[in-house]
């Protein structure tokens, strides 16, 4: 058989057929596991326009990368939409036990590391202490700021970035692998 | 210099098509190196391009949710975005195997170039030129190069 002037034998066709089937099986695996994202995604909030349980919202159309702009200053909670509260503190699983633990970068308290700064590319995260919890606002640079979210019992804030390779300059090309997690002092994820 | 090189017997030259130069017994090391590079560099380029495509294809297939942010126009959480990523990953995987095994390499390279061009245009339109986009331009160039090379070594033709 000739394909575009090139000879393709039966072994080649067989190999392509097997590859096609394997690809379909992998696609089925990906399709069935599509809901189990690696990290609480920031992109998901853009489409839902609301807050998913346990994660703050970042309202932005994630189909387009964040536009380059200078990082915003911490917004005043008074000027922001009313914060959503996580209610009574419920300790979730240990962050270290989650599959995305290796992709988490602490951004608060203290100064973010170089890797954390890169993970923050394209994102804005502002944190204010509020009583025994944290008031966290996450957003995408160049987009409208998200609503602040109160994490009762929160002590540390992490940004999840599964792949740093989609960050360029101060733009994040793919928000699908970005997320935000707040833990308590024991490292348990605050729901 | 001109008398030291020749073509392998039964080479494509006999059919009027260009083929790799085979240095004669009196060839200099530089000529031997050039002949070796002309013979095997396309294979290396082909396999390395296949590795790139396979890596992205596999990850798009097994974790489509991480890649939906790249899909233009549609919302990243939509079913359409996931389906688009899965289809894209499947195509990349097929192209990777075709290139690695040397099956219809020029057609596979042409399709790979088309896919890469689509990625470059999409990234450029949405965020302008950046280091990521320019890296893809380089990979696109490799794919374009491979569309012009026939009669490669290490190719499955049977």
Radius of gyration of chain B: 19 Å
Query: Mean pLDDT of chain B, nearest integer?
Result: 81
Q: Which spans of chain A of ≥5 residues are poorly predicted at pLDDT below 50? A: 44-81
Name the structural class of chain B: mainly alpha
Q: Could you tell me the strand content of chain B as a percent range?
A: under 5%
| Assembly type | heterodimer
Fraction in helix of chain A? 10-25%
What can you see in these coordinates?
The complex is a heterodimer of chains A (191) and B (158). Chain A is an alpha+beta fold and 191 residues long. Chain A is 19% helix and 28% strand. Chain A folds into 2 domains: 31 residues; 149 residues, no CATH class. In chain A, the strands form 5 sheets. Chain A has a 4-stranded mixed sheet with strand order 3-8-7-6, with no helix packed on it. Chain A starts with a strand and ends with a strand. About 20% of the residues of chain A have low confidence. Chain B has a domain of 107 residues. In chain B, helix 1 packs antiparallel against helix 2 and helix 1 packs across helix 4. Chain B is elongated, with a radius of gyration of 19 Å. The interface between A and B is large, with 51 and 47 residues.
Key features of this structure:
heterodimer, A: 191 residues, alpha+beta, 2 domains, four-stranded mixed β-sheet, three-stranded antiparallel β-sheet, elongated, B: 158 residues, mainly alpha, 61% helix, 4% strand
Quick summary of this structure?
The complex is a heterodimer of chains A (about 190) and B (about 160). Chain A is α+β, with helices and mostly antiparallel strands.
How is the secondary structure organized here?
The complex is a heterodimer of chains A (191) and B (158).
Chain A: E1 2-3, E2 6-7, H1 10-32, H2 42-48, E3 84-85, E4 91-94, E5 104-108, H3 114-119, E6 123-130, E7 133-140, E8 149-151, E9 156-161, E10 167-168, E11 171-172, E12 178-183, E13 188-190
Chain B: E1 5-7, E2 21-23, H1 29-62, H2 79-101, H3 105-127, H4 131-147
Antiparallel strand pairs in B: 1-2
């Amino acid at each position: 058989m000739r394909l575009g002037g090139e000879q393709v034998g039966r072994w080649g066709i067989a190999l392509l057929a097997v590859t096609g089937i394997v690809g379909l099986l992998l696609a089925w695996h990906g399709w069935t596991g599509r809901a189990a994202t690696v990290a609480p995604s920031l992109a998901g909030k853009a489409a839902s326009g609301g807050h998913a349980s346990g994660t703050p919202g970042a309202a932005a159309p994630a189909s387009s990368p964040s536009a380059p702009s200078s990082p915003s200053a911490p917004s005043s909670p008074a000027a922001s939409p009313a914060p959503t509260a996580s209610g009574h503190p419920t300790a979730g699983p240990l962050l270290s036990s989650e599959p995305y633990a290796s992709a988490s970068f602490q951004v608060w308290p203290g100064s973010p590391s170089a890797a954390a700064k890169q993970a923050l590319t394209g994102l804005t995260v502002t944190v204010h202490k509020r009583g025994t919890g944290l008031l966290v606002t996450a957003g995408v640079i160049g987009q409208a700021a998200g609503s602040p979210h109160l994490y009762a019992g929160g002590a540390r804030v992490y940004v999840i970035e599964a792949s740093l390779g989609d960050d360029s300059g101060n733009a994040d090309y793919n928000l699908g692998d970005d997320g935000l997690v707040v833990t308590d002092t024991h490292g348990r994820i605050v729901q | 210099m001109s008398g030291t090189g020749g073509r392998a017997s039964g080479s494509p030259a006999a059919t009027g098509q260009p083929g790799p130069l085979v240095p004669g017994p009196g060839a200099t090391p530089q000529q031997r190196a050039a002949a070796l590079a002309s013979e095997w560099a396309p294979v290396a380029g082909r396999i390395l391009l296949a590795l790139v495509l396979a890596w992205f294809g596999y990850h798009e297939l097994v974790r489509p949710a991480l890649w939906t942010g790249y899909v233009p126009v549609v919302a990243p959480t939509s079913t359409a975005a996931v389906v688009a990523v899965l289809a894209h990953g499947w195509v990349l995987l097929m192209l990777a195997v075709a290139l690695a095994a040397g099956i219809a390499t020029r057609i596979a390279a042409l399709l790979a170039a088309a896919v890469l061009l689509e990625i470059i245009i999409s990234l450029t339109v949405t965020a302008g030129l950046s280091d990521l986009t320019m890296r893809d331009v380089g990979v696109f160039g490799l794919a374009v190069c491979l569309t012009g090379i026939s009669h490669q070594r290490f190719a499955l033709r049977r």
